[in-house]
Write a structure and sequence with these properties.
Blueprint (H helix, E strand, L loop, with lengths): L1 H34 L4 E3 L7 E6 L6 H17 L1 E6 L6 H14 L3 E4 L4 H13 L4 E4 L10 E4 L2 H16 L3 E8 L5 H15 L6 E8 L4 H13 L6 E4 L2 H13 L6 E5 L3 H8 L5 E5 L1 H18 L5 E3 L2 E5 L7 H5 L1
């Protein structure tokens, strides 16, 4: 009788284990089905010591392809495997799903772009509570339990944009700064960048800076903003863009309208933007060293795993690219 009882009890335990395992497996695969499969796993030449997940904003964006180059270099140097995940278009919901997958997979660490400070922050805290350290990249969730942030100083970028305006327009200009309402960390990052621009030209009373906001998720809204801007007879002579994608959209719209008599100052880094600078359509751009960003993110995570700590902030260098030095960048940007 006891033997039958033990057999029955063992059967219940086995069925419970099978059920729980199947449930977890189903959950992970459902999330993968919704978000798409892992885009790529970057592995070193030797057996990796650690396995990390990096969650990107947009795998098709040239900026994130540059980040990936840095990740590949760090993967070899530090002997780690990295899942390089993310949507093919900007989509916070997909980033959230990839974050859930990474947490469920119990990897050695997670590096993530922050699509929404509150949502991402809650998942970051969840990961840390499950002993998975998190490093944020590009955008930050400062109030979360993340171990480090790898990104650009928005104020410094603004200073560089302001200096480029002086180089393009001289000591007299009526400039519009285009700011996307949809940017992550909108209030803090936007204000820091604008402050940097204004501080860099504060000794030039004949330079006027106007800030114009628009919805970057709506192409028609961007086009309407540009049309209204150039139709307003206010002596506008310079346009400062604050993202790579929006710089390209602004230039394309101005070309369509045959209105190319502006000093266009861009942000970011892409093959198309470099070609515009080479053709002198765009005066120049201020871009982060995104390859360094990817490398430093892996470096930070390895330090956490090996010694239990790392710097809280890795400041990524910025590059100032104009027609004067475009030859140093255009070949690598077109590869």
């Amino acid at each position: 009788m006891k033997k039958k009882y033990y057999i029955f009890l063992l059967s219940i335990i086995i069925l419970t284990i099978v059920f729980v395992t199947s449930y977890i497996y189903y959950g992970i695969n459902t999330a993968l089905s919704d978000a798409g499969q892992i885009e790529e796993i970057i592995v070193p030449g030797n057996e990796p010591e650690y396995h990390f997940s990096m969650i990107c904003e947009n795998l098709e964006d040239s900026l994130w392809l540059s980040v990936k180059n840095g990740v590949e270099k760090a993967s070899e140097e530090f002997n780690v495997a990295v899942e390089f995940n993310g949507p093919n278009v900007v989509n916070g919901s997909d980033e959230q799903k990839y974050m859930n997958i990474a947490i469920a997979s119990r990897l050695d660490g997670i590096i993530t772009h922050v699509w929404d400070e509150k949502e991402a922050g809650e998942l970051i805290d969840c990961a840390v509570e499950k002993c998975m350290p998190v490093v944020t990249i590009g955008t930050d969730a400062e109030n979360s339990k993340r171990a480090a942030f790898v990104g650009v100083n928005a104020y410094d970028s603004g200073v560089q944009l302001g200096r480029m305006l002086l180089a393009a327009a001289g000591d007299q200009s009526n400039a519009a700064v285009l700011i996307s309402k949809g940017q992550i960390d909108e209030t803090v990052q936007k204000n820091l960048m604008i402050l940097g621009i204004k501080d860099s030209v504060k000794d030039y009373p004949n330079i006027k800076i106007t800030t114009i906001e628009y919805d970057s998720t709506d192409i028609l809204n961007i086009e309407d903003t540009i049309r209204d801007l150039i139709q307003n007879p206010n002596g506008l002579d310079s346009i400062i863009c604050t993202t790579s994608k929006d710089t390209t959209l602004v230039v394309q719209r101005l070309i369509d309208l045959n209105k190319m008599d502006y000093n266009i100052i861009g942000s970011g880094y892409s093959p198309q933007l470099l070609r515009y600078i080479d053709k002198r359509v765009v005066f120049g751009t201020v871009s982060a060293d995104y390859e360094q960003m990817g490398y430093d993110a892996i470096k930070a995570m390895v330090q956490i795993k090996k010694i239990g700590r790392t710097s809280a902030y890795f400041k990524v260098n910025t590059m100032v690219i104009t027609g004067e030095n475009i030859s140093e960048y255009i070949k690598s940007g077109e590869e």
